[in-house]
Amino acid sequence: MLNYFLKGETGTRIRFIGLVLSTVLVLLSVVTLAQKGLNFGLDFTGGYLTEFTTSQSIELKQLKTFITKNHNGEFELTAQGNNHFQLREAPAINQSASNSSNDWQSAVTQSTDINATILSSAYIGSQVGDELFEQGCLALLAAMVAVMLYLAIRFEWRLALGSVVALTHDLILVLGLFSLLQLEFNLTVLASLLAIIGYSLNDSIIVGDRVRELLRVKLNASISVSSIINSAIKSTLTRTLITSGTTLATVASVWLLAGTPLQGFAIALFSGIVVGTFSSVCIAATLPELMGLSAKNYEVKIDSQSQALMDMP
């Protein structure tokens, strides 16, 4: 592998450095996930969800300070719009924690400075959360299996394996980011992981198809596989960057303008597109080369009977 790095072209060296960087990031993400885990939202853990409005404008920080004085447990307060707030609480484990939920609601509704109106208050059971998490994981697993079957049929096994590794790399890095920053992991984020699978697969297929085409065209040419892969990446790079750039602009708009409910979804999708574009070049195209991909893998094998027929005058 070191020889591959030292004797390679500039593009090859960049791909190799990217592969090493990806390996380091994956290891760091796994360590982070093992130590800190994911910050599961109420969709999975269960708890109370309360929405309310205030009759006058108030800063989120000021409102949070007021509620803290009248709440004994942990909670998360987010602004949903103009004078519209949402408060999430963990499930009550004792009577005093259960009473604290009513205490803060009474405090915000009776305070003349806040004068809040409770719009809705619902409890999400942990059993429902467990079921949602299980179904979400099954959906993720089913998507991965479908992708593997598709790649196994479409590509030579080295290119197929490179695409699968790139896909796994993207998911691990996104999960590692959410674990590191302790961002809330809810159903919308899980849905974004399914979207990342499709987007990452699209990038890898574009590069893989071009590599396969050039290997077939230059089957008898004395050109190294490394040069062929570099040419394939160069020919698809403009299309990849334009597609990724326009998609990132759309996702960034959702991130900045759609509000808190879709913020986790947008962050996951944004980071997934970035690492997906990166992995399609540094992993999906580089790993098959390290595993011995060559133009000979696309030679048409002719049996002895067919060869005899071709040799007949």
Tell me what you see in this structure.
With about 325 residues, the chain is α+β, with helices and mostly antiparallel strands. It has twelve helices and six strands. Strands 3-4-2-5 form a four-stranded antiparallel sheet. A two-stranded parallel ribbon has the order 1-6. Strand 3 and strand 4 form a beta hairpin. The chain starts with a helix and ends with a helix.
Outline:
With 313 residues, the protein is an alpha+beta fold. The chain has helices spanning 2-7, 10-36, 42-45, 60-69, 95-110, 126-154, 157-181, 187-217, 225-257, 263-282, 287-290, 304-311, and strands at residues 39-40, 47-54, 75-81, 84-89, 116-124, 184-185.
List the helices and strands and how they pair.
Elements: H1 2-7, H2 10-36, E1 39-40, H3 42-45, E2 47-54, H4 60-69, E3 75-81, E4 84-89, H5 95-110, E5 116-124, H6 126-154, H7 157-181, E6 184-185, H8 187-217, H9 225-257, H10 263-282, H11 287-290, H12 304-311
Parallel strand pairs: 1-6
Antiparallel strand pairs: 2-4, 2-5, 3-4
Mean pLDDT figure: 79
Number of strands: 6
Biggest sheet architecture: 4 strands, antiparallel
Which strand order spans the largest sheet, edge to edge or round the barrel? 3-4-2-5
Q: Which consecutive residue ranges, at least 5 long each, have pLDDT under 50? A: 301-313
